[in-house]
Amino acid sequence: MELSKSAKENAQTLKNMFGGSFDLITREFSVNGKTAETVSLDGMTDEMKITESILKPLTDDKNFSKLYSTALQIKDSAFKGTGITEEKDLFAIAEAVSDGNLALFIDGLENAFVFSVQGYPRKSIDEPQSEQNERGSCESFTDNYKDNVTLLRRRLRTPRLVFERMEIGETSRTSVLLCYLSDRTDRELLKKIQKRLEKTGIDTLPGSGYLKPFLDGRSPSLFSAAGFTERPDMLASKLAEGRVGIIVDGSPFALIAPYLFIDYFHSLDDYMSGSLYAAFIRLLRVSCFIVSTALPGLFAAACVFHPEVLPSNIMLDVAAAEAKTPFSLTFEAVAIHLIYEIVREAGLRMPVAIGHAVSIVGALVVGDAAVTAGFIAAPMLMVVALTAISSAVISKLHESVALIRFALIIIGGLTGFFGIFVCIGLLIADVCSVSPFGVPFSAPLSPFVKNAQADAVIKCDNKILAKKTQSLRELRF
Amino acid sequence: MREQGKISSFQFFCLLTVCRVIAFFTFIITDKKGFSPGDRAILFVPFAIFGLLFSVPALIVIGKEENGTLFDISNSLSPKITKLAAVLYTLGGLWSAAVSTARFELFMSTVMYPGAQLFGFIALLAAAAVLIAKRGLETAGRTALAVTLLIGVSLLFVSLTNIGNFDYTNLSPPLTDGAAPFLKSGFFAAARTSETAALLVLAPKINGKIKKGLGIWFLTLGVTISALFFLISGVTGEYGEKQTFQLYSLTVLSKIGVIERPDALICAVWVLCSLLRLAFYMYTCAQFLEGGFRFKSKTAVYAVFSAAVLALYAFLSESEETFSEVLSSGANEAIFAALLAAFPAAVLAADRIKKLYYKRKRAAH
Predict the structure, then answer these.
(1) Number of domains in chain A
(2) What is the DSSP string of A200-263?
(3) Are A303 and A423 found together in one domain?
(4) Which chain A residues touch B116 with a CB distance below 8 Å?
(5) pLDDT at position B90, please?
(6) Checking DSSP bridges between strand A112-116 and strand A102-106, what pairing results, if any?
(7) Which of A71, A112, B117, B218 is the most exposed place for a label (fewest CB within 10 A)?
(8) Model confidence over A334-391: pLDDT tens digits?
(9) Are residues A155 and A232 in contact, defined by beta-carbon separation less than 8 angstroms?
(10) Are residues A286 and A406 in the same domain?
(11) pLDDT tens for each residue of A443-466
(12) B134-138, B227-231, B259-263: least confident range
């Protein structure tokens, strides 16, 4: 839509485009003897900047000469403190205004000026909430993507760090940044990600997690090959390996693609600790994954079908405890895990102020009263407790783990170890089948990549790791 | 960087190992005469030799063109031979899958779920195998690597926990019954290694040195199986001789700390082998069929294949006598030997004759 030569008319058209929204502010004044109008959105701009850097110089006639064109003088000298561009299309101007810019129309001019004066309330940089580290950085990403760019730039001070901006969402037009190191990231991988993001066809983008299924491609799987992080240091280290980061405006979680299965068991603290301890901790995390997924199912299967597997004294204790409860062991296992998931979900959603109340209810009602009343056997409660603690160790995998756990309890209770191991077979196959970016999700374990083993299940000494920069290219098959 | 859709030769041999290992776990001695305990320790020698000899035609076929298939040669002879090959190998694969499934069911109904009707379980296994086969060879190859590791750990556990029970007086000198039964055992053991026929159609999907890999694989597998048989003989002695599933009798004796009977858990690991073996057979047979009769929908083939395996397995396991006769008849091994060695050799010979005929014809002109 082309501009009219009348500033008032342009401002009015813009107002109409915004449906007369109350926060659209227009100001009328005179520039070099011509009528001018500015249009901006209240709360999206830095008012001080507008007054000091734009309105004051524009309304001061000393800054202008009748001999030269007003447009030229505005562009050349007056407003060095702000970014300035010229626009001809009213739709583009409306989009710029929505983004927190200020549009300036001057009578008789064919173009409008767009000043970059964004200034909206921002959340300060806090500590990471979901990725606590003992010795790592205390900074986390914020909702503002420009702050996130700064946080990354401070960690990777190289011109090879590239941020490509794109807009996703027909209505929301959310800014999405693809970040990568130009000398380390595979071009094909980058193209694949760009293509998938361009094809989303979504209307609004509420957060980075919304993009995950689009990145994962077609094959349905319990696991995603795109991971989350709210730590700039984590994203920086992944970019250094040749991966691609996706930062979404309005979301403090950046996406990492590709994200491998083994990455779920890594933490930045591993690199700050001794290699032996790091290896031990990683093995512990893997064990916790196995415990949190399979323990309840194996317990149910062992008790129902294969009691000989259990040590005889434990078997007798379990039998005695189960004899006092009215439900079958499988039903008990499903019910208690369901209650655990309810308590967990309540803990996530409810206001912090009443969090303690739910904890007390969970601990007393589920933990104590249910056993005392004879609804649930104490051994089963211990299994749930162990499972819950283990699943907290690998919290990023919680979604998949919860589903697998329920499936294994039911199938284990119905078919014993046979069904559990058929499911485990399917699970291994599922992990091995994910490869949306040309890098197998199960790498470097299967396919086995010898060069990548220094930082896979175990972690070698940092002195060894420093000698070889691990690259994603090694893992491509 | 490797090509997409291909697996490494290591992954392929892991797949073969998984297939072979489950056959070994569920191995039933039907001809005790030719399988004396002393012979088992050195069984790997005839096994590896006969295994490689059986595979020679297949190796020539894939060596003709760089990692070519049987169909590359049969197509040049006649499309009818290609179709015949596709049907024969699919039926062979179906039979092998059904027999191994029936063996596995017999094993489970004997030791894991004594007396239970396990058709539903096997149907679950078949459905799961369809899901894996659908995901392709790459998935199967990668899964095989992980499963091989699990199997290795379980075998190591069984071996280490039983090594203290080893009694050399349980052993007997090798070749006590003469060389003929020993060689016969090796011959039959190698003939049962039917999975190698998959090379005839999967070779183009494998990266790396197949021929060298096959040699190493036969040798490693032979040595491992011989070592396990040696351990079984030394630990279980005459008791083991009377057991239907010999490796299981060794597993039963494994214990660690307060856990005195981990055998059910160890056997459950073998379920993974059975699952992967079935999926591998499905995938390979679909590849054979695709080579002979061009079609797109493999899912339908997998579904039909799994239904056929279920039907055939149900027939085989209907009566123990029938199954026992099938296992002891030697027909099984004869079919595999024919498909692995005889048919490719015949196709190669026909190809050679055809080429000689045209050469002479050209010379006459």
Answers:
(1) 3
(2) ---S----GGGGHHHHH-SS--SS-S-EEE--HHHHHHHHHTT-EEEEETT-S-EEEES--GGG
(3) yes
(4) none
(5) 93
(6) antiparallel
(7) B117
(8) 999 998 898 888 888 888 777 777 777 777 777 778 888 888 888 998 998 999 999 9
(9) yes
(10) yes
(11) 898 888 888 888 888 888 888 888
(12) B259-263
Interchain proximity B132–A426, CB inside 8 Å: yes
B139·A417 Cβ contact <8 A: no
Range of the domain at A294: 271-433
The answer, for A221 touching chain B at a CB cutoff of 8 Å, is: no
Separation between Cα atoms, residue B111 and residue B255, nearest integer Å: 17
Across the interface, whether the CB atoms of B132 and A425 are under 8 A apart is answered yes
Interface contact B249, partner A, CB < 8 A: no
Inter-chain touch B112–A429, beta carbons under 8 Å: no
Helix (H/G/I), strand (E/B), else coil: A113? strand
Whether residue A419 and residue B121 make contact (CB cut-off 8 A), yes or no, is yes
Q: Which residue has the higher pLDDT, A437 or B365?
A: A437
- Give the residue on B whose Cα is nearest the Cα of A418: B268
Cβ distance A421 to B138 less than 8 Å, yes or no, reads no
Q: Kindly determine whether residue A433 and residue B267, on different chains, have CB atoms separated by under 8 Å.
A: no
Q: Give the CB-side neighbour count of residue B69, counting CA atoms within 13 A.
A: 19
Q: What is the mean pLDDT of residues A82-92?
A: 87
Q: Is B264 on the interface with A (CB under 8 A)?
A: yes
The contacts of residue A443 (CB under 8 Å, 6+ apart) are A260, A262, A449, A452, A475, A477
What is the total count of domains within chain B? 1
CB-CB under 8 Å, B125 with A442: no
A447: nearest CB among B11, B136, B269: B11
- Show residues of chain A in contact with B11, CB under 8 Å: 446-447
| Chain A touched by B2 (CB under 8 Å) | yes
Taking the Cβ of residue A283 and every Cβ of chain B, the question of whether any pair is shorter than 8 Å is answered with: no
**Same domain assignment for residues A255 and A284:** no
- Please indicate whether, in this complex, the C-beta atoms of B271 and A425 are within 8 angstroms of each other: yes
Q: Considering CB atoms only, which of B131, B262, B271 is closest to A418?
A: B271
Smallest Cα distance from B362 to chain A, Å: 47
Residue type, A223: F
Q: How far is CA B213 from CA B1, B56, B199, B200, B217, in A?
A: 20, 13, 12, 15, 6
Residues A418 and A396 in one domain: yes
Q: Do A287 and A415 share a domain, yes or no?
A: yes
Range(s) of the domain holding residue B153: 7-356
* A459 in any annotated domain: no
Q: Which of A310, A418, A448 sits opposite B121 (nearest CB)?
A: A418
Give tens-digit pLDDT for A324-342: 899 999 999 999 999 889 8
Of A306, A425, A446, the CB nearest to B272: A425
d(CA A53, CA A49): 5
In a domain, B311, yes or no: yes
One domain for residues A232 and A367: no
Residue A469 falls inside a structural domain:
no
Q: Could you tell me the CATH number of the domain that includes residue B56?
A: 1.20.1740
Q: How far is A471 from chain B (nearest CA, A)?
A: 13
Q: Do residues A226 and A338 share a domain?
A: no
Q: How far is CA A323 from the centre of its chain?
A: 47
b/e code B165-198 from CB counts within 10 Å (16+ = b): eeeeebbeebeebeeebbbbbbbbbbbbbbbbbb
